[in-house]
Amino acid sequence: RMHCGNVMKPSLKDNSGSHGSPTSGMLHGIFFSCNTEFNTGQPPQDSPYGRYRFQIPAQRLFNPNTNLYFADFYCMYTAYHYVVLVLAPKGRERLPQLDISSNKFLTCCVEEGELVYRHAQDSILEVIYTEPVDLSLGVLGEISGHQLMSLSTANAKKDPSCKTCNISVGR
């Protein structure tokens, strides 16, 4: 907060994830988890990301003035897959763009005058937000559950038997 004027600044994406991801070592952004508990809609009590959580209302980052892009998708060798999306202001078309109101991962729709958000429950979902974020727009707090082991995705490899990831084995 002191060194960056109360702003979280984008940093270069590392080489974690799929080996062919076009964002690795190329895209600057801030990483946010989008996962929520299915029964409450709140962030999980436990976290693999550390003891502290910066929580910001979705509409501050994702709204009709934002473009949503597909960046990465790979196996976690479980029932879940890891999905990385990019949120950027309109005008940055360098990745496959998703329709913000209709896609399989993360949506933003106006219903009865309110923004409504939905996300896939069968994926570990992260977004990379490409712009600086003013820390006063959110809340920093300690997680209420356990700090889980890291979900390291370094050297992520596709499961050759996965029918979701590999077109050649079942689709």
From TrEMBL:
> Region Disordered: start and end of each range?
1-20
A single cellular component GO annotation: cytoplasm
List, alphabetically, the InterPro entries matched: PHYHIP/PHYHIPL (IPR042868), PHYIP/PHIPL_C (IPR045545)
| UniProt superkingdom | Eukaryota
| Residues of the Phytanoyl-CoA hydroxylase-interacting protein-like C-terminal domain | 2-171
Which keywords appear in this protein's UniProt record, sorted alphabetically?
Answer: Glycoprotein
The record's annotation in PANTHER family points to: PHYTANOYL-COA HYDROXYLASE-INTERACTING PROTEIN (PTHR15698:SF9), PROTEIN CBG15099 (PTHR15698)
Name of the featured protein? PHYIP protein
Question: What is the source species?
Answer: Jacana jacana
